[in-house]
Amino acid sequence: MIMDPATSRPALVIDNGTGYTKLGFAGNVEPSFILPTVVAVNESFLNQTRATTKNSNWLAQHSAGVMADLDFFIGEEALTRSKSSNTYNLSYPIKHGQVDNWDAMERFWQQCIFNYLRCDPEDHYFLLTESPMTAPESREYTGEIMFETFNIPGLYIAVQPVLALAAGYTTSKCEMTGVVVDIGDGATHVVPVADGYVIGSSIKSIPIAGRDVTLFIQQLMRERGEHVPPEDSFEVARKVKEMYCYTCSDIVKEFNKHDKEPGKYIKHWRGTKPKTGAPYSCDVGYERFLGPEVLFNPEIYNSDFTTPLPDVIDKCIQSAPIDTRRALYKNIVLSGGSTMFKDFHRRLQRDIKKIVDARVLASDARLGGNVKAQPVEVNVVSHPIQRYAVWFGGSVLASTPEFFAACHTKAEYEEYGASICRTNPVFKGMY
Q: Which of 59, 93, 201, 218 is spaced 20 to 30 A from 124 at the CA atom?
């Protein structure tokens, strides 16, 4: 076997999320870059090419097309460009965890590889992540772009929650059985994993995630009449959420606390208007605890979906095979930025414990006290790398020697086509 030079270099780990993309090299403890998943494309070139088709030469049109292909920005740069000039239009390539716009996604990857990580994609194996409910076609498109456009030597597409579980792998003893509660910006998934295998039929998905918390905070501030410039209000709400929000144990008590000592609990936000540069300030009050409350009492935000997160987790575990349930309750792992609220894991553990204890009591009463049920241990695990647990899990896995054997290689892609990306074997030879 010829030694592939790419296997001696670290793999690239790119975790594309709805809100943020985490990218870096395998073997590192944290991602080298965390950037908003957004692309700013210059629209003026496109109009220019249309206008010049009638009378101008082919060359001018061609070079305008090439410029349009190169003139775009991603991440924070994209946001600042779109604010300062009207020629750039923002495009969010991922919606609710699924890739929505493949052209934008390809551009996004292009800058990730060349401008941020600054490496030659032909020299590195890639580990990309995907959301649990992704269609196999999406994997084929990803494989096609990676092998055709970037000419990479090998690719592995991993499911995010499994990586999040593997992230806890180094922090505690090797537990590959657990429920991953992955709350990102665009989607929330509750995924039971037994011995490293996802129990597909029990995956639960919730239409409420980090972006909804932001929108709810934005709505609360708007209704209260805070003077935030409208074009800036979503960003301000997001910053307020990330800086000031926390989870409370009892909402009524919390309202009382805020009313008794407003000086202690109300925070002040100061910003400058993007167009004029004039300073403005606004108060941050109840939304500090009402934001995260959306996950525990969804009806305050949206009447379409009213099942609280603890109930969803409980239903998910109850629908899993009976011999895995105790182990699943014992290891509920949090992952994703929206689980970072202060005391979030305590509140979640308390609420799930309540549901479980009520069930045990009911079954004891039904059996008339002849048989005593063993109490069920509920444990919500919170760890310091929760925010990019998926990326870190990918970094751990992609730095093991077995990783390269599990990847799909360029040669395989050329022989069999994109359909090889549909299955991502944990072990080669077991399809």
A: 93
Cα gap 69→56, rounded to integer Å: 20
Q: CA 430 to CA 383: how far, in whole Å?
A: 33
Of 278, 299, 320, the residue at which a domain comes to its end is: 299
- Inform me whether the pLDDT recorded for 102 exceeds 50: yes
CA 40/CA 108 separation, integer angstroms: 10
What CATH number does the domain containing 143 carry?
3.30.420.40
Helix (H) or strand (E) holding 63: helix 58-70
Residues forming a β-bridge with 178: 193
Domain presence at residue 236: yes
Do 348 and 380 form a contact (C-beta atoms < 8 A)?
yes
Q: Which residues of 376-398 are buried (b: 16+ CB within 10 A; e: fewer)?
A: bebebbbbebbbbbbbbbbbbbb
3-class state of residue 267 by DSSP:
strand
Query: Both ends of the chain: CA-CA distance in Å?
Result: 23
CB 223 within 8 A of CB 249: no
State whether 28 and 100 are in the same domain.
Answer: yes
The predicted-structure confidence for 132-167, as pLDDT tens digits, reads as follows 888 999 999 999 999 999 999 999 999 998 898 888
> Do 41 and 113 fall into the same domain?
yes
CB 279 within 8 A of CB 271: yes
- For the stretch 56-92, what's the b/e string if a residue is b when 16 or more beta carbons lie within 10 angstroms of its beta carbon? eeeeeeeebeeebeeebbbbebbbebbbeeeebebbb
Number of domains forming the structure of the chain:
3
Residues 137 and 80 in one domain: yes
Confidence at residue 430, expressed as pLDDT on a 0 to 100 scale: 40
Residues β-bridged to residue 95: 98
| 429 lies in some domain | no
Local confidence band at 1 (pLDDT 50, 70, 90 cut-offs): very low
Other beta carbons within 10 angstroms of residue 174's beta carbon come to 9
**Percent of the chain scoring above 70 in pLDDT:** 91
Contact assessment for residue 91 and residue 38, using Cβ atoms and an 8 Å cutoff? yes
What are the two backbone dihedrals, phi and then psi, of residue 56, each rounded to the nearest 5 degrees? -90, 175
Tokens describing residue 413: 């892609």
